[in-house]
Design a protein that fits this description.
This protein has 4 helices and 15 strands. The strands form 4 sheets. Strands 8-7-9-14-15 form a 5-stranded antiparallel sheet. Strands 1, 2, 4 and 5 form a 4-stranded antiparallel sheet that branches. Strands 3-12-11 form a 3-stranded antiparallel sheet, with no helix packed on it. It has one domain: Creatine Amidinohydrolase. The chain is of the alpha+beta class. The two termini are about 30 Å apart. The longest helix has 24 residues, at about 5-30. The chain has helices at about 5-30, 35-50, 115-135, 145-155; strands spanning about 55, 65-70, 75, 90-100, 100-110, 160, 165-170, 175-180, 195-200, 205, 210-215, 220, 230, 235, 240-245. Bound molecules: magnesium ion (MG). Magnesium ion binds near residues 105, 168 and 201.
Length: about 250
Amino acid sequence: MIIIKSEREIERMREAGQLAAHALERVVSSAAPGVTTLELDALAEQHIVAAGGVPSFKGYRGFPGSICASLNGEVVHGIPGATRLEEGDVLSVDVGAILKGYHGDTATSVAIGQVDRRIRRLLEAGENALQKGIERAEPGNHLSDISWAVQSYAESLGYSVVRDYAGHGIGRDMHEDPQIPNYGPPGRGPRLRAGMVLAIEPMLNEGDYRVATADDGWTVYTADGGLSVHFEHTVAVTDEGWEILTARDA
Ligand code: MG
């Protein structure tokens, strides 16, 4: 069942979304060669806790971090650790925050130092794919219009979209209905209406879409070893269209 949020609930989710967004900004602005992903994790956690929030991911099914930090061929759910970022890496960071009972969830991928054109092109595609999906999150559209917008854009550039992981509804729980796959034909699934809040999160691979999970039980990586990027926003469907609750410039 898709939970419809009231104006008051959306207002709270905007606050949670902004907290997650600012924590992510804190991480991104500190992500540089020589920094460890555990140091970035501490920055995000401190930021969230100082604002009276709780990191959504910490302890979730035993996940040890406050952020997910996934490097290069890792897709999502990377565990922060002693790995030092290196010039030329691509880092995907996912941050979730609970504030006043509601979750905000957002992710981005960034270049560490100077990266080659191949990575810059993939990063740009991932960011644009998220935007294409968000633009379909309007009242009256079908849920899978989002999925198709992401897939058709990514594949037109020669990339694949990960199929084993999807976006999700979000609210009092981090993962609510509906699941939002990043692939599939348009015109399927429930019609969108104002008050739905969706975490839209395309994962683009430079090679094949298939992924596997590491022995740590969490880290998802590309089966072919190719690079992957991940972009996510928490988006409210509104009467007028949509609003990005985790916008970092808000
Ligand atoms: Mg999410």
